[in-house]
Amino acid sequence: MDLQQEFFACLALKHTPRLGPKVWRELFAAFPSAYEAVRDAASWHDRELSSKAQARACAAEVWREKAEAEYKEARRSGMDVVTWFDPRFPERLKEIPDPPAMLYLRGDASLLGNPGVAVVGARECTRLGLETAGRISAQLSKIGITVVSGLALGIDRQAHLGGLKGVGSSIAVLGCGLDVEYPQGNADVRGELYAKGLVVSEYGPGVKPRGGHFPVRNRLISGLSLGVLVAEAAHNSGSLITARLAGEQGRDVFAVPGPIGQPTFTGCHRLIKQGAALVESASDIVEILRFDFARELAEVPDPDAEDTENGVDVERAVVKKKKASTAPVEGAERRQRRRSPLVDREAMGLSPDEKRVLDMLDDADKMHIDALGRELGWDSSTVSRVLLLLEMRGAVRQLPGMWYLARED
Fold first, then answer.
1. The sheet that has 170-173: what strands, in order across it?
2. Residues 6+ apart with CB under 8 A from 346
3. CA angle 269, 161, 92 (to 5 degrees)
4. Looking at residues 17-34, what average pLDDT do you find?
5. Radius of gyration of the CA atoms of the chain, in A
6. Can you tell me the distance from the alpha carbon of 144 to that of 52, in angstroms, rounded to the nearest whole number?
7. Contact 196, 175 (CB under 8 A)
8. Across the strands, what pairs with 214?
9. Which of 160, 179, 215, 251 has the most other CB atoms within 10 Å of its CB?
């Protein structure tokens, strides 16, 4: 595949009027390359891939002037680019409803294939929030999980600094062009990301930061991640947009609790009330993620592992595991990796209702209390009562955010 040809074809789609990510996604599912999609634009409407106006606009090459200008400027600036059909393009971004067709990047592109956790929060924050964001980010990165954030001042900055301390490193997603130095107070962090991490943007060369760019950018922060941690946020913080998008994309949402009455933590407290998992360390995050993303984290050690294992440095072990083959784990093999043998239930004398709940938890591995009620057709008080009895018997375990799983030995 001609990568430059693909790059230019993606620019053609990007600059076709009224053509956006949702249409791009349909086109990429129907054609073997972006180039083939653009070349056959006249057929889009007949194939129900776009409106007639969109198909005509692309076929008439109304995009050419802007596409050529961006292409030449990107080449002049020496920017690296990864397009949809490039093997380096992150699979997780292909899953979101409105994915980018391409990303500009500078740094270590291999990080796009790493399991990631977004750590976001307020620009105006407390020392507690900064310490927590940096500590958890460093713990995640040490075991090989990449920390994703938005390169803003405050929590984002601290998240990147923590991520850069370990082998997982860090990815920054910009709301402006890759060649625009913003924010100016983070030039030192950006330099470290260029050397040891990765900086990406869907915006072209020279595009200035605007207010509307950052909520759009946030979908990529959550999309690149298995889960999003909000380390500190007020009730109107932009990081809450990232948390909402994460939920819509099927990612886990985590929040750090703060002092009662502290305005910069009210957003975190609201998230927790709405079902986000309350976390205090990386081990809380990884424990929850393992039940939703077992395959992605199969080669990742636990955060509370000793600094050395049998005399081998943990970070070196993580690097070695990254290079090893990681074949998909499916069916019974996957369940075996995700769960230890269950406690002996025969000796508990469980009621029929208790057995029904446990059977559902076995099938789903982990379920929210609301989902259990819907599946069983029970009201919330009945579900709560049965779960409480099972928890007292030691048959189930409650996770943060009112999630439940069958208890292990």
1. 80-83, 102-107, 198-201, 170-173, 146-149, 116-121, 227-232, 252-255, 277-278
2. none
3. 70
4. 95
5. 23
6. 47
7. no
8. none
9. 160
Each residue's pLDDT tens digit, 376-403: 999 888 888 888 888 877 788 777 567 7
Q: H helices within 302-405, ranges in order?
A: 314-323, 331-338, 352-364, 369-376, 380-393
**For a pLDDT cut of 90, what percent of the chain falls above it?**
69
Q: pLDDT confidence of 345, banded at 50, 70, 90?
A: low
Domains annotated for the chain, with CATH where assigned, are 3-102 (no CATH), 108-298 (3.40.50.450), 345-406 (1.10.10.10)
Q: What pTM, to 2 d.p., does this model score? A: 0.76
Report residue 77 as tokens: 């600036």
Q: Indicate the range of 27-36, 203-212, 281-290, 390-399 predicted with least confidence.
A: 390-399
Mean pLDDT value of segment 337-362:
69
Q: Which helix (H) or strand (E) holds 289?
A: helix 282-292
Q: What are phi and psi of 15, to 5 degrees?
A: -100, 10
Cα 19–Cα 223–Cα 282 angle in degrees, nearest 5: 170
- Token representation of residue 91: 């699979």
- Mean of pLDDT values over 233-237: 91
Q: Amino acid identity, residue 227?
A: G
Q: How far is CA 324 from the centre of its chain?
A: 23
d(CA 148, CA 174): 11
